[in-house]
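User: Predict the structure for this protein chain, please.
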Amino acid sequence: MTRPKAPEGREARGEPPVLVRHLERLAEAGLTAKVTGAVVLGFACGAALGDDVGWVEPQVRSVLLRLFALPGEVFLALLQMMVVPLVFASIARGIAQFEGFAVLRAVGMRFFAYTLFTTVCAVGIGFTIATFVEPGTMVDLSAVAIAGPMPAVPPEGAEPLQDGSLLDTLIPRNPLRAMVEGQMLEVVSFAGIVGIAMVSVERETVAPLLDLLRATLDVCMAIVRGSMRLAPIAVFGLSLQAAATAGLAALGGLALYVLSVLAGLGTLLGVYALLLRTLGRFPVGRFARAAAKVGTLAFSTSSSAAVMPLSIRTAQDDLDVRPEVARLVVPLGATMNMDGTALYQTVATVFLAQVAGVDLGPGALLMLIVTILTASIGTPSAPGLGIVVLSSILHTVGVPTAALGLVFGVDRLLDMARTAVNVTSDLAACILVDRTLPASESQVPPSSP
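Assistant: Here is the predicted structure, written as structure tokens:
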């Protein structure tokens, strides 16, 4: 059975794509139940195998834990393998789809100002909550020894954090080296520069490169979708080993971690309401009713891209946003406006740094903010990819990526929640851009493939 072709140019207008994509996601809805069940079962079995209970000899327990963790290690390796080509192709192609700088000037400045402000708010809220609650202090340090031994020193990727050479990181002198070493910030910067350069070149000249980037995205997404079939088994093994290694105390830390993320996401919704009321002069109740149906679908699919057609129609019909604005801002927001993801990555990074005993000094904090800003903007809008980008962020700040196994078990729930916040932010951006954009400047063509 041939799958429907993904909408070009991230536009996807009309009813059929919405129905087709929603049916596809409904067919995969069982994955969420399986992952949730795997988390519960994994933590229960892990607690039974832990030192707190003492039902299994230490030697036998060590062998069992390594065996159960193997599917999780394979799963994480497959996802991490895709992060560089996926993020590069997504950012470069997303920017290059603009037909000239006039469109960028008309809507881009307002949209980017909104995105920058709300993303900074998300990072600030997440860091404040995680620092105040300190959920990582409730988890034993040995819990991060999931995919291998913890390095005694920060990895090579964390060196720029110590010398403060931010410019060298933002403008990579050797982009190929950055790709090979998985330097996320440098890859994102290089992709942005390439995308902007492609806008200034004739469309016929860059058409083959656009096709190549699209093919790269399709191939990467096929690998990610195939990898997700391992998710229930991987989650069970990782959750089991995390609970068995850290003991019952880890469950309290994970619960605080989840509550910290959810509290931050709720605070973000309050920020949107405040912006709409003060800057957009838009009724918050009306916005909440319109955003609820989009957020519900986004929560069930964990993909901003999957609900783009519904978001565009909701912005036009229910929120009275001009069609040319909605058709530009929503696709752009699905790629670059990831407030919920930024907050999640901030809380997760601080949480895992606390678990691993990594001290985030002033230089590391600055690089953490910049990295999360660029990484959340460049995270492709598909289920499960936030954890992939998080691995690169952890590498950048010197936190061992082995710690990912500790949070992966609860990532599915948080992925669904932060995706709902992401699409809500896109609708808020549509209103604010539309309300501040003069009518003469709004006559811009929709983005093309």
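The chain has 19 helices and no strands.
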